[in-house]
Amino acid sequence: MKRWLRLRRVPADTGSRHSRFPGEERTGAAGGHPVDRSRTASRVSLAVLVATQFYVMLTSTVVNITLPVMGEDLGLAPTLLPQVVGAYVLATAALLLPAGRAADRFGRRRLLLIGLAVSTFASCLVAVAGDATTLIAARAFQGAGIALVQAALLALFLLRAPEGERAKPLSLWGMATLAGGGVGVLFSGLLTEVAGWRYVFFAIAVFAALLAPLCAVTAPSDEVTGGRVPRRDLVSLVVLASGLVLLAFGTAEAGRWGMSRLQALIPAGMGLALLVLLIALERGRSNPLIPLRIFASASVRAAQVGVAVLGMAATGMFFLLPLYQQRVLGDSPGTAALWQVPLTVASSMGSVFAARLGRRLGSRTALALGQTVLAVGLLWMGRLKGERSFADEALLPSLLIGGGLGVALVHMVKAATAGADQQNAGVASGLTTTVKKCGGVFGLTALGSLAAAVTGTADPGLPQVRALQEGYAAGFTLLGALVAATVLLIPLAPLLGRIASRRSHRSTAVDSAPPRTGP
Q1: Are 439 and 309 in contact (CB under 8 A)?
Q2: CA-based angle 382:387:391, to the nearest 5?
Q3: Which is nearest to 310 in space by CA: 457, 415, 191?
Q4: Which of 189, 375, 427, 471 has its CA 20 to 30 A from that of 112?
């Protein structure tokens, strides 16, 4: 009897010791159901994070359809339109990794709130811009705020579950990413037709202002290391940001002038040199800005390449598809945006079911399946003639693109962040998002150059619409070929890593063997 009573005795402080949220305690029957409250708080917190990721992608894509209207309203020259997009993307890509390290040092929730405040103010500046200089500067400021939000946000998603259980939060992250991108196009197209492009940016500023207090209350708290940033870290941050900006600028100039021109070679070469310098500065440091142990696994290194290709596919698809709809099929911005709703639903469903597919088939098999479906959809789009309506010829391949991208993105990000522990979750998330952004920037430049070149060299007897269609078809085909080429990248990565390791060991053994002294 005494033994049974001892087994029934429960320490009074057990619940509070394992609580995941500040102030949460197990109070017993008189206090209600603490487990239910914990689950509810966790779900609310996750829902707010999903809504914030949705906002990030909404902000990133609203300019896709509004850009021509913005140019006409402000009297922008055609050569300035790419800078409106480029300023945002460059600022985001250059600051993501520094923001990831800042999130690890000073706290993810704190950085998230700062980023939301910056992006809210910048969205208002974009909405009231009256000239090209103000508009481009405001877009760069907006990109800086989004970089802070993104670096902290993915880290908070990763910290919600142990490494082996990250599929579910990542599937929700992927769903919000793809849904936000699609809804951004739809929202901006419809609101621009009804009220004007300025109201689009006022609306997303209000959205961010509403999210900030919700994040402050519900976002999970994390450890803050604090302290001053070491001088070597500041040097590395400057070198990293400068290298990314110069490389992206050189790639953009290559799209305008050709890769053999000095306008492209000089900044691109300087950017690559700075990135090589960064690796030399970081190698051997006890606490580097970018811990190279994150890349110890061959699968993680391969996954980073795959993330870049998926970033190229996602950015390129949302860039080419509206142009194809409006300039080849003749749809209005609102109609083009409405026809992207099925694609958005397909991508969201793919993200939702990605975790279930991973449990049934294995993560690598689910990733290969998603990449294959995505490649088939893109290659199918590359064979369209633009002679019928979107529903008749482009709806089915767009559904394949959306579903395949949703599945592939979740499992590729999971593979790319597999080597990140809690201490380096911020820098790993910042690195992964930076790679994805850079893939989108460089891919967009390559696709724009390819489409323009194919259109310019088309048969002079062809109508302009047919020439444009051939250029866009070439872009879709290139994207499909790149995705197809990376299907076997992750499955073969461990084998290639073992082969490289064996060769390295053999080389080391030969170098360390004692010299032969006899005949």
Answers
A1: yes
A2: 80
A3: 415
A4: 189
Instruction: Return the residue matching tokens 């979750």.
Output: 425
Q: Give pLDDT tens digits for 388-397.
A: 888 888 899 9
Please say whether the beta carbons of 106 and 224 come within 8 A: yes
pLDDT in tens, 82-93: 677 777 877 887
Q: 298: left (phi > 0), else alpha (psi -120 to 50), else beta?
A: alpha
Residue 389 near residue 328, CB atoms below 8 Å: no
Query: Has residue 261 got a pLDDT over 80?
Result: no
Identity at 79, one-letter amino acid code: T
* 232 three-class SS: helix
Question: Would you give the distance in Å from CA 99 to the centre of its chain?
Answer: 14
Instruction: State how far the Cα of 493 lies from the Cα of 207, in Å rounded to an integer.
Output: 42
Q: Residue 199 and residue 346: Cα distance in Å, rounded?
A: 28
User: Which single residue is written with the structure tokens 């992964």?
Assistant: 432
Which amino acid is it at 429?
Answer: S
Cα separation values, 180 from 51, 132, 172, 276, Å: 9, 27, 12, 35
CB distance 307 to 434 below 8 Å: no
pLDDT of 203 reads: 93
| Cβ atoms 386, 414 nearer than 8 A | no
> Percent of the chain having pLDDT more than 90?
14
Average pLDDT, integer, range 301-317? 84
DSSP H helical ranges for 387-488:
390-393, 395-416, 425-456, 464-485
Contact by Cβ (8 Å): 140, 87: yes
Angle at which helix 108-128 crosses helix 197-218, to 10 degrees, equals: 160
Residue 370: HSE in the Cβ half-sphere, 13 Å Cα cutoff: 35
- Taking only Cα atoms into account, the Rg of the chain, rounded to an integer number of angstroms, comes to 25
Alpha carbon distance 64, 318 (integer Å): 8
Q: Buried (b) or exposed (e) across 249-281, using 16+ Cβ within 10 A?
A: bbbbbbbeeeeeeeebbebbebbeebbebbeeb
Structure tokens at 299: 């699968």
Give the residue, 10 or 405, on which the prediction is more confident.
405
Other residues' Cβ atoms within 10 Å of the Cβ of residue 283 = 9
Is the distance from CB of 216 to CB of 78 less than 8 angstroms?
no
Which helix (H) or strand (E) segment holds residue 42: the answer is helix 34-61
Whether this model's pTM surpasses 0.85: no
CA distance linking residue 321 with residue 308, whole number of Å:
20
Q: What does the alpha-carbon distance between residue 493 and residue 484 come to, in Å, rounded to a whole number?
A: 16
Tell me the residue length of the chain.
519
The residue among 316, 500, 492 whose CA lies nearest residue 405 is 316
Burial of 61 (0-12, 13-18, 19+ CB in 10 A): buried
Q: Residues 189, 201: contact at Cβ < 8 Å?
A: no
Tokens of 502: 């064996």
Angstrom distance (rounded) from CA 149 to CA 449: 31
* Contact in structure between 445 and 252 (CB atoms under 8 Å): yes
